[in-house]
From TrEMBL:
Location within or outside the cell: Secreted, Cell wall; Secreted, Extracellular space, Apoplast
UniProt superkingdom: Eukaryota
Species whose genome carries this gene: Zingiber officinale (Ginger)
A GO CC annotation given for this chain: apoplast
Protein family per UniProt: Belongs to the glycosyl hydrolase 16 family.
GO molecular-function terms, A-Z: hydrolase activity, hydrolyzing O-glycosyl compounds; xyloglucan:xyloglucosyl transferase activity
Name of the protein in question: Xyloglucan endotransglucosylase/hydrolase
Gene Ontology biological process terms, A to Z: cell wall biogenesis; cell wall organization; xyloglucan metabolic process
Listed InterPro entries: Beta-glucanase-like, Beta-glucanase/XTH, GH16_AS, XET_C, XTH
UniProt lineage: Eukaryota, Viridiplantae, Streptophyta, Embryophyta, Tracheophyta
Cited function: Catalyzes xyloglucan endohydrolysis (XEH) and/or endotransglycosylation (XET). Cleaves and religates xyloglucan polymers, an essential constituent of the primary cell wall, and thereby participates in cell wall construction of growing tissues.
Post-translational modification summary for this protein: Contains at least one intrachain disulfide bond essential for its enzymatic activity.
Length: 282
């Protein structure tokens, strides 16, 4: 396993996709029968949901470590029952996955931001937050920084969660499987809002979420050897070696103390045999 990781880490090339890139170039619409649209010469992508279907897209490239940014404006108004997803994932039953999910709510109530990390097909690492702004009024930047030591979730540059590599303690970490970015807008009114108590009001359809300024400063697996790590360290502040520094730690602490509404590491009822091991270490 270690030798496989080292091979993949070396045999990847650094791909920098600037914010001026195009959704035509970077992404494929994967489902929705016309409900997903690329507009403004490739600078804007919209997903829509009606009673018949939602919609989704994915990136053309797979990534193995990187810093991924997307600006999203979520479904406004009464979005109860809807889920907007934005996540990295590999394929297969032992897949890795790094999730942002935005759970809609009644007009005037805040969205729930749901995060999760899957390693080798195993998830159950949910942390949920309310946002400190209205994510439907304007675009906000949601980022995943993924390097060999950390998976850091960020909102407008503020870290909200840091999943650390604790493999030395027997805890799996996503590091071997290249992943694509996926995003979708779909109906989940059986669970999304207040545990399914509030259903989707289809009189408000179509529901629309908007995306812009996708940027992936990331390693893309390639057949030839290259200098991914050294290039990454010298580009864009060096995400390859980035951690949550003391200033960012204070900001993350502020978010978690004031806006975190669920932490799997505090859910003793869910884990009566004992909390997952990373909870006591991290």
């Amino acid at each position: 396993m270690k030798s496989c990781y080292l091979f993949l880490a070396v045999a990847c090339s650094l791909l920098v996709i600037a914010s001026a890139g195009s959704f035509y170039q970077d992404c494929d619409i994967t489902w929705g029968d016309g409900r997903a649209k690329i507009l403004n010469n490739g600078q804007l992508l919209t997903l829509s949901l009606d009673k018949t279907s939602g919609s989704g897209f994915r990136t053309k490239n797979e990534y193995l470590f990187g810093k991924i940014d997307m600006q999203i404006k979520l479904v406004p108004g009464n979005s109860a029952g809807t889920v907007t997803t934005y996540y990295l994932s590999s394929e297969g039953s032992t897949h890795d996955e790094i999730d942002f999910e935005f759970l809609g709510n009644l007009s005037g109530d805040p969205y729930t931001l749901h995060t999760n990390v899957f390693t080798q097909g195993k998830g159950n690492r949910e942390m949920q937050f309310k946002l400190w702004f209205d994510p439907t009024m304007d675009f906000h930047t949601y980022s995943i920084l993924w390097n060999p030591r950390h998976v850091i979730f960020m909102v407008d540059g503020t870290p909200i969660r840091d999943f650390k590599n604790l493999e030395s303690r027997g805890i799996a970490f996503p590091k071997n499987q290249p992943m694509r970015i996926y995003s979708s807008l779909w109906n989940a009114d059986d669970w999304a809002t207040r545990g399914g108590a509030v259903k989707t009001d289809w009189s408000n359809a179509p529901f629309v979420a908007s995306y812009r300024n996708f940027n992936a400063d990331a390693c893309v697996p390639a057949s030839g050897a290259s200098k991914c790590a050294s290039n990454a360290a010298s580009n864009n502040g060096g995400w390859w070696n980035q951690e949550v520094d003391s200033t960012a730690q204070e900001r993350m602490k502020w978010v978690q103390q004031n806006y975190m509404i669920y932490n799997y590491c505090s859910d003793l009822k869910r884990f009566p045999q004992g909390l997952p091991p990373e909870c006591s270490i991290a």
